[in-house]
Amino acid sequence: MNATYCGPPPDPGEIATSFNLDPALIALLLALGVALRHRRAGLAAVAVLAIAFISPLCALSSALFSARIVHHVLLVAVAAPLLALAFPARRTGGLALPFAISTVTLWAWHLPDAYDLAFTNVAVYWAMQLSLIGSAAIFWRAVFADGRSPVDQFLFVVAAFAQMGMLGAILTFAPQPLYAAHALAPFDWGLTPLEDQVLGGLIMWVPAGIPYAVVAALIARRGWARLPGVAA
Predict the structure, then answer these.
(1) Which of 54, 63, 145, 196 has the most other CB atoms within 10 Å of its CB?
(2) Burial of 225 (0-12, 13-18, 19+ CB in 10 A)
């Protein structure tokens, strides 16, 4: 049994009602929604955060590694770019450092010891969540910064997905379960821990590329439209 913020792993029969009704979290998201009420990207980010932390996905992520991967993908590849659009950077700085920081943060939190610790200590859990979304938002703000070359934008978005896909591939082909936090609960869901881990790796490797592909396509389209002689 773990002590993660999202609570103990639910049984399949409990998941539909396993909402996280933490009043502090709800108040924080409501306040953020009010502050961003005139920014569509910001409101969309708040909605994604509500799915990640209030919906039954939060509880399910205590049981299944694959659900936790969905949770992390929502943070770094959906909520973070939306927040970056809501709080745009006005200066064009380097992309390499934000990319490196966000990459190291993502990989570090998927090391078994760090990952399992976040399931036994609520403070560490929130350190994981805030550092994941914070480092990713900084990266996306750098990508979307005014005056950024479309070529640089495109290359770093592709690189961001490539490093996530590489991590997913490692998890997919790992010969044994890596995470003690998910050593038992997957059996209640008809999965072995290794099958759950493989599913999580596949999610990170393939479907997680969808938001990156959408952003890359928009960047390519805008870059094409800016070419001389090409109508917008």
Answers:
(1) 63
(2) exposed
Place of tokens 């078994």: 112
pTM of the model: 0.93
pLDDT above 90 covers what percent of the chain? 86
8: which DSSP letter?
S
Answer for the pair 211, 149: CB distance below 8 angstroms, yes or no.
no
Q: Are 208 and 219 contacting, i.e. CB atoms less than 8 angstroms apart? A: no
* Domain positions in the chain: 12-225
Nearest CA-CA partner of 110 in 166, 192, 160: 166
Q: In this structure, what token pair is assigned to residue 3? A: 């002590």
Return the pLDDT at 229: 54
Q: Which residues of the chain have pLDDT under 50?
A: 1-2, 231-232
69 closest CA partner among 190, 169, 142, 158: 169
Distances from the Cα of 93 to the Cα of 96, 120, 144, angstroms: 9, 38, 11
